[in-house]
Every structure is written in C-alpha cells, then in structure tokens.
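Retro notes, item 3 of 5
We never archived the inputs for the adenosine monophosphate complex last cycle. Fixing that now. Sequence and ligand:
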Amino acid sequence: MVEQTFVALKPDTVQRGLIGEILKRFENAGLKISGLKMRWVTKDFAKQHYKSHVKKAFYNGLEKFITEGPVIAMVVEGVCAVETVRKIVGSTEPKTAAPGTIRGDFAHHSYNYTDKKKIAIKNLIHASENKKEAQYEIGLWFTDDEIHKYKTTHEKHTQ
Ligand code: AMP
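Structure as it came back at the time:
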C-alpha cells in the first residue's frame, strides 16, 4: 500500500514564493519526499508530460504557462500516496477547491474567467491522477538514482 506519486509545483507557486508553504503540507501529513529538483520545462517536454491533454482546447495556454518559469518536481511516498496527495491538493479549479486544500487556500481562479481571458488556470500544482500516471510521470521526470530510499524519524507512526 506504500506507493509513490509525482507532484510538480507549477511556475505560479515558484514565482509567488509558496514552495515552502506547499511542501510543508505534504511533510505535515507524514508523506516522504523521495525525490526533489527544479526544472525549466521545454515545450517538447510539456507535450510528453501532458500527452493526454495535447489536443484539448486549453492546451496552448497550459503549455505557455508551464514553460514560463522553473517548476519544482517531486516524488512523494506514503500509504495510498496518489489519493492522499490529490486530497491535499484539492480539485483542479481553485474556485471550487475546498478550503483547507492547497488550491482552495492559495488560489481562486475559475474556468469561466480563464476561458474568457484565454489563459491557463493558475492552480499551483500538478499531482498524478492514478497509479499508472504516477509511474509514467516519475519515469519521465526522474532517473532511478534521483529517487532516494531513507527512513524518516516519524515513519513508524505513519507507515
Ligand atoms: P491534470 O492532468 O488534471 O493535472 O490537468 C492538467 C492541467 O490542465 C490542470 O492542472 C489545469 O492546469 C489544466 N486543465 C485541466 N482541465 C482544464 C480545463 N477544463 N480548462 C482549463 N485548463 C484545464
């Protein structure tokens, strides 16, 4: 049941100086950071990461946004990590994301607003949707030797 998932803190998180605030939410929940790096995504790489969205109407805005500055990429590990991380992150549209979630607490964009302005929805963070996507994204962003095995001091209480 202990599994890994992929998380990216998007350019709006980095530019707003929210890396620490957001990272802390995962650490507070007892999740383990197994891999971490900063990367400036190219258009080609964005197309590989968002391969299921490339043909969608919002893709151009999303590509422009995800390539406009560096992102923080992470491998996060824990019990049911995929589901747990998405619960902490909140729903995709910040306007409807519940208070207490990352998107609900640190953003408020709506699809209605961003569609009219033809811009990407600024929702701070990406988290793999399911185990298959997590496996693909971890393999795309990280090499095996960039993912670390170690014990956290509180692991016996959370895993
Ligand atoms: P996801 O793979 O669910 O993380 O979706 C990728 C990203 O695409 C989201 O985080 C949003 O930035 C964007 N996105 C997803 N659905 C929409 C939508 N209906 N309109 C605009 N942007 C979207």
